[in-house]
């Protein structure tokens, strides 16, 4: 029916997820206050901000693990939701890689699928098909202690990709890696993201990483966290490694560093009081 087409177009323009007036209090600590953000389908949005400003708390809310304070508005594809409605609808890689030491690569990768009730044989088949793309072909029977840090992160990422949800949350996935491995993982992640067309929110402490990966960078304030700056990254894709030396990249970096430094100073002053 011709009449349905514009409606469909409007639906595609809708944010995938919208947060309004999100606050979160833990006892005497106000972790988030009136945070507002909306994410469009297919975007890769990076999040930076001082340590303790509430980034992981934001992700816990989006993953349905924490309920925000009353008065908040959360919408998934335009539908009002509570945080607990989001549980199981989002794929989440927490800040610490949670590989189980007694499970090999393949069985760690299928964990979320198994929890969801997929038969193990079927889940293993899906994961085996994905191994080469994640640089893990031939390592399916290895245990986490037999893998390098980069490989462990790729197993944890593979688990997150296998659990196919509209929104993917990655909390400092490369934080523990050396600079060279990290750069390689960033390029690899962009390739995988472009192929799988997923919507990603990515927390990092590394401004270069935030710009290199992101369509937008969100800078959070010192605690209580809210969005201080939303910076669009209009650098062409696919992005090559040497883009970090371009004048456009350096100008973005300057703007972002200034915003982050201002907030980091505030959190130090508060901590010193
Ligand atoms: N479950 C909890 N109970 C009590 N306080 C909490 C809880 N989770 C987080 N907090 C507090 O909320 C604040 C924000 O923590 P959060 O982990 O979200 O910060 P972050 O921005 O992710 O920091 P980092 O960059 O160091 O990972 C901190 O003061 C922390 O102590
Ligand atoms: Mg954190």
3D architecture notes:
- Residues 17-247 form the ABC transporter domain.
- It comes from Kumtagia ephedrae.
- Pfam families: ABC_tran (PF00005).
- This is ABC transporter ATP-binding protein.
- The protein is α/β, with parallel strands linked by helices and 273 residues long.
- The chain has a single domain (2-89, 165-272), classed as 3-Layer(aba) Sandwich (Rossmann fold), CATH 3.40.50.300.
- The chain is built from 9 helices and 10 strands.
- A hairpin with a 2-residue loop joins strand 4 (73-76) and strand 5 (79-80).
- Helix 8 crosses helix 9.
- The chain is globular and about 50 Å long.
- Residues 1-8 have low confidence and may be disordered.
- The structure holds adenosine-5'-triphosphate and magnesium ion.
- The site of magnesium ion has 4 residues, from helix 2.
Give a summary of the structure in a few sentences.
The protein is built from nine helices and ten strands. With 273 residues, it is of the alpha/beta class. Strands 6-7-8-3-9-10 form a six-stranded mixed beta sheet, sandwiched between helices.
């Amino acid at each position: 029916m011709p009449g349905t087409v514009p409606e469909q177009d409007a639906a595609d323009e809708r944010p995938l997820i919208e947060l309004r007036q999100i606050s979160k209090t833990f006892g005497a600590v106000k972790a988030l206050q009136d945070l507002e953000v909306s994410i469009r389908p297919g975007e890769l949005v990076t999040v930076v901000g001082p340590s303790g400003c509430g980034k992981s708390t934001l992700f816990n809310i989006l993953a349905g693990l924490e309920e925000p304070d009353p008065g908040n508005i959360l919408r998934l594809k335009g539908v009002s939701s509570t945080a607990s409605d989001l549980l199981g609808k989002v794929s989440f890689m927490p800040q610490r890689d949670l590989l189980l030491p007694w499970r090999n690569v393949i069985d760690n990768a299928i964990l979320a699928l198994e929890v969801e009730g997929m038969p193990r044989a079927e889940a293993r088949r899906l994961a085996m098909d994905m191994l080469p793309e994640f640089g893990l072909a031939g390592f399916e029977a290895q245990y986490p202690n037999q893998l390098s840090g980069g490989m462990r992160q790729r197993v944890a990422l593979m688990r997150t990709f296998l659990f196919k949800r509209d929104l993917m949350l990655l909390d400092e996935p490369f934080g523990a890696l050396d600079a060279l491995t990290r750069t390689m993982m960033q390029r690899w992640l962009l390739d995988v993201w472009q192929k799988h067309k997923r919507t990603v929110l990515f927390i990092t402490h590394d401004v270069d990483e935030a710009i290199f990966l992101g369509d937008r960078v969100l800078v959070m304030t010192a605690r209580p966290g809210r969005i201080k700056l939303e910076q669009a990254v209009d650098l062409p894709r696919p992005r090559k490694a040497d883009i970090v030396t371009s004048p456009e990249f350096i100008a973005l970096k300057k703007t972002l560093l200034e915003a982050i430094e201002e907030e980091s100073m505030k959190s130090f002053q508060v901590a010193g009081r």
